[in-house]
Design a protein that fits this description.
The protein has 185 residues and is of the alpha+beta class. Helices cover 37% and strands 12% of the residues. The longest helix is centred in the last third of the chain and has 15 residues.
Length: 185
């Protein structure tokens, strides 16, 4: 396991690829949705990189969201109806996020989409979990949830706060137990 609190781990991982910043070409429909407020915030603080795409809410995309929010099936379906559209981060022909520069993400941390700031964490009920992504360097070096949190300088309270913010910006109601904290990561 690597030393604690290594904020450069995501930058090192993104540059090594494939990671959460680089997806397999042809899998763009599975890129997380981007709320208009998130898109607007990025446009205010980051250089224009042609970084947004309008993506149809395909059945496969909606099914993915239903797996992420299994207790909110009807609400998810109403927020992302099939045959409508959502914004996502754009990628180049190799699947690399348009905001991924030579030194990592060019979007300031405070303007990044909530999903980007949450990853590799997710909330299942009131429990912080970790996505099982073998290519994630933080997961490799941190090994387990607490080690990954230490490596990224994160806490369960910060993850709950970001998840609450993600839920609100995507149109999902806040969940009990997700109290905001003043300092984000």
């Amino acid at each position: 396991m690597t030393s604690k609190n290594d904020p450069a781990v995501c930058k090192r991982c993104a540059l090594a690829g494939p990671t959460c910043c680089i997806l397999t070409p042809g899998q763009e429909e599975f890129c997380f949705p981007l709320a208009v407020a998130e898109k607007d915030r990025i446009q205010e603080l980051a250089p224009d990189q042609g970084g947004f795409a309008l993506e149809p809410n395909s059945k496969a995309f909606v099914d993915m969201l239903l797996r992420l929010f299994p207790d909110e099936r009807e609400l998810v379906r109403s927020l992302f109806p099939e045959n409508k559209f959502h914004f996502r981060l754009a990628v180049d022909k190799e699947g690399k996020c348009r905001f991924l520069g030579q030194n990592g993400c060019v979007v300031p941390l405070e303007a990044r989409p909530y999903y980007c700031r949450l990853f590799p964490f997710w909330m299942v009920g009131d429990q912080v979990t970790v996505f099982d992504m073998a290519a994630c360097l933080a997961r490799k070096e941190g090994v387990h949830r607490n080690g990954i949190m230490d490596l990224l300088g994160a806490s369960p309270a910060q993850v709950r706060d970001l998840m609450g913010r993600l839920r609100l910006v995507w149109g999902l109601p806040p969940r009990q137990g997700m109290r905001p904290v003043k300092k984000g990561f």
